[in-house]
Specification:
Elements: H1 4-26, H2 35-48, H3 53-67, H4 82-92, H5 97-110, H6 115-124, H7 129-134, H8 139-153, H9 168-184, H10 189-197, H11 201-215
Helix pairs in contact: 2-3, 3-4, 5-6, 8-10, 8-11, 9-10
Amino acid sequence: MVSRKANSSSSGRGTGEDSGRERQVGKRAKPPLTEAALRDLALHYAARFATTAARLEAYLVRKIRERGLADDGNGRTVDLDIPALVARLVELGYVDDDAYARMRARDLGARGYGARRVDESLRHAGVGEALRQSHAPGEAASRQAAVLMAKKRRLGPFGGSRPQGDDPLLARKAHEKAVAAMLRAGHHYDHVRFVLAAASEQDVEQWLDEAADQEGHQGLW
């Protein structure tokens, strides 16, 4: 005679296995891509995300690699021209590398990142060199970003009062760590050196005003 416990256990295992099989059957692979389906994917992606032509093309290539291409009526694989599709979306204004570069540069600057990080980010997104240069921050904007990062990290004159008689070795290590953090954020070494060595916040403000006056405020984001 089979015990109730054993019967219940057997039933539980069967239910779990059946559920697993049902989930696998229910999760069917998406069909291969047709030209219309690929166009819909491109439009959906461009509508949801600020992107560049290079990123959109990479996205579509990845989708084709994941799902494959459909066959035409004669059993031949459909030949899709991805660059032409991307170029058409650029022509229609759905994708705009210039607008993306301007937005991304301003966003990074407002978060305290320097010119080198701006250039790296735009290059990674596939923005061409000419556009990267046109959206590179000027001297005033670069100084502003460096000061903002120093404020966020409480470095230099923004770090509060320093106890007298600090260990020189510890002080040097702290300075080197601060320099490394600012350089990783993409700032020019001369800017980093000035901000960290500034005696007061007023000195930093004067430094910012000098660059703004020289550029006529055109270098500000």
